[in-house]
Design a protein that fits this description.
The protein has 379 residues and is α/β, with parallel strands linked by helices. The protein contains ten helices and 15 strands. It binds adenosine-5'-triphosphate.
C-alpha cells in the first residue's frame, strides 16, 4: 500500500455498493425508532470513511445524527484514549480525515487500544450507549439515528468484544466491510447471534481498493502521527481561534506561556487507569502527563462507577508544599469546576511539543515538582 498522506487525496470515492448501503440506511423505517447502524470490518478497510458518508446521508432526513465513537486509537471526533457520544447536526465536509468536535458525553479509557482492559472498555461503551438510549429512545428528546463505528480488531479477544458489543446494542442494521484477504474478514452473516435468533438487516460491502486510475485507495495510516496531530489540535483549543499557531514550535511556546489553572490537590482524587502507583509516588507520576479531567457522577454499574470526562489536561507542574497542581486545558471553567477526578492513563504529551529546539519545556525540569516560580507559571 502506498505511504502517501491521506489528506493529499482530493476526494472520496463512493463505490455503488457503498451508495446503496447508505441509501438503504437513510430510507430505513423510523418506526418504532430511527436506525441504529453498526459499521464493522478489519483494520484500514474504510469503516471511518463509510461512517462519515453514512452520517451525511442520514442528516437530510433526521436533521441530527448520533455517533458513538468507539475507536480509542483513532477516534473520529475526540482526542486519543476517549470513547465518546456525539450529536452531529451539520454535514461533514472532510470525508477522508477525522475532525475534532465537541462531544455530548465522553469516557476516558486512557489507552490507544482496548487490549489492556477489555472489561473497562466495554463498560465505557455500554455506559455511553445507555446514555443514548435514556436520552434519545425514552421520549426525553426527539429520537435520533445512531452510527457506531467499531475498531478494526476483529480476531481473538477483539472478535469476542465485538460480539459482546453487538449483543448489547442490538443494532437494526449492521454494515460489514470486507477486504480481499478473506482470512482477515469477520465471519459472514450474523456471527454474534445464536442459531435461530432473528437479527438486523445485514449489509456486506467491499472495501474500495482502487480509483478510476487504478491507484490504491486504502492508504496505510500513520497512526502514531495521527494521534500526535490530534492531541496538538486538541491543545490548540486552549487559545482563542484568532491566534495563529501554525507550527508546533509556536504551540509549544504558547503552552509554555499560558497561565495554567491552579487545582488544589485536596479537591481531586487521582486514579491510575492502567497501572498501580505507590502513594508516595502519585504526584511524581502525574507530573508532565496528560490526564482525563473527570466528574464522578456516573451511575454505578457492576459495582463500579464510570465517570464522565470533561476533557484532557496537561499537568504542567506540581507544588507539593502548597498542595497545588498546575493544569493546562481547553476545558471551559464552568465544566472544570465540577472536575473531581484526575484519570491517568497512557496517553503521552506529543514529543513534538516536548522537543522543540530553543524552547525549554516547562514540563520537564527536575525541580518542577516542588518549586514553581511565579515567573514560570505567569510568563
Ligand atoms: N471510499 C474511499 N475513497 C477514498 N479513500 C478512501 C476510501 N475509503 C477509505 N479510504 C482511505 O483509506 C484509508 C483507510 O480508511 P479508513 O480510515 O476509513 O479505514 P478504517 O477501516 O476506519 O481504518 P481503522 O480500522 O484503522 O480505523 C484512509 O486513508 C482513507 O482516506
Amino acid at each position: 500500500m502506498a505511504g502517501a498522506s491521506p489528506s493529499a487525496r482530493a476526494e472520496v470515492i463512493v463505490p455503488p455498493d457503498w451508495a446503496a448501503a447508505t441509501a438503504t440506511a437513510a430510507a430505513a423505517s423510523s418506526e418504532p425508532a430511527p436506525p441504529v447502524v453498526v459499521v464493522c470490518g478489519p483494520k484500514n478497510a474504510g469503516k471511518s470513511t463509510f461512517s462519515r458518508l453514512l452520517l451525511n446521508s442520514l442528516l437530510p432526513r433526521y436533521g441530527r445524527v448520533g455517533y458513538l465513537d468507539t475507536d480509542v486509537g483513532q477516534p473520529e471526533f475526540s482526542p486519543p484514549g476517549c470513547l465518546s457520544f456525539h450529536v452531529v447536526d451539520e454535514a461533514l465536509t472532510d470525508l477522508l480525515n477525522p475532525t475534532l468536535r465537541e462531544c455530548e458525553r465522553c469516557c476516558f479509557f486512557g489507552d490507544i487500544s482496548s487490549k489492556r482492559d477489555p472489561e473497562t472498555y466495554l463498560n465505557c461503551l455500554f455506559h455511553l450507549y445507555d446514555y443514548f438510549v435514556e436520552k434519545y429512545r425514552s421520549g426525553a428528546s426527539e429520537p435520533l439515528p445512531l452510527i457506531v463505528n467499531t475498531p478494526g480488531w476483529v480476531k481473538g479477544a477483539g472478535f469476542d468484544m465485538l460480539v459482546e458489543m453487538l449483543r448489547y446494542i442490538c443494532p437494526t442494521i449492521v454494515v460489514q466491510i470486507r477486504i480481499s484477504a478473506q482470512s482477515k474478514n469477520l465471519p459472514d452473516g450474523m456471527f454474534w447471534l445464536d442459531c435461530g435468533q432473528t437479527g438486523p438487516n445485514m449489509i456486506n460491502i467491499d472495501a474500495p481498493f482502487h480509483d478510476a486510475l487504478n491507484r490504491s485507495l486504502l492508504i496505510q495510516k500513520d497512526s502514531y502521527g495521527m494521534r500526535e496531530r490530534r492531541l496538538i489540535e486538541y491543545f490548540k483549543q486552549c487559545f482563542p481561534s484568532d491566534i495563529s499557531l501554525t507550527t508546533n514550535k509556536e504551540l509549544a511556546y504558547g503552552l509554555t506561556s499560558l497561565p495554567p489553572y491552579e487545582v488544589s490537590i485536596s479537591d481531586v482524587m487521582v486514579i491510575h487507569l492502567h497501572c498501580q502507583v505507590p502513594p508516595s509516588e502519585v504526584w511524581h507520576s502525574l507530573n508532565a502527563t496528560i490526564v482525563g479531567l473527570a466528574i464522578s457522577c456516573g451511575t454505578i454499574e457492576a459495582g463500579r462507577s464510570i465517570p464522565w470526562c470533561a476533557g484532557l489536561g496537561i499537568i504542567r507542574g506540581i507544588d507539593v508544599q502548597r498542595g497545588i497542581l498546575y493544569v493546562i486545558t481547553p476545558v471551559p471553567l464552568e465544566h472544570l469546576q465540577r472536575v473531581d477526578l484526575l484519570l491517568q492513563g497512557l496517553i503521552e504529551i506529543p514529543k513534538s511539543l516536548l522537543q522543540v529546539r530553543g524552547c525549554v519545556s516547562p514540563y520537564m525540569p527536575t525541580n518542577v515538582l516542588h518549586r514553581i516560580s511565579e515567573r514560570d507559571i505567569n510568563t
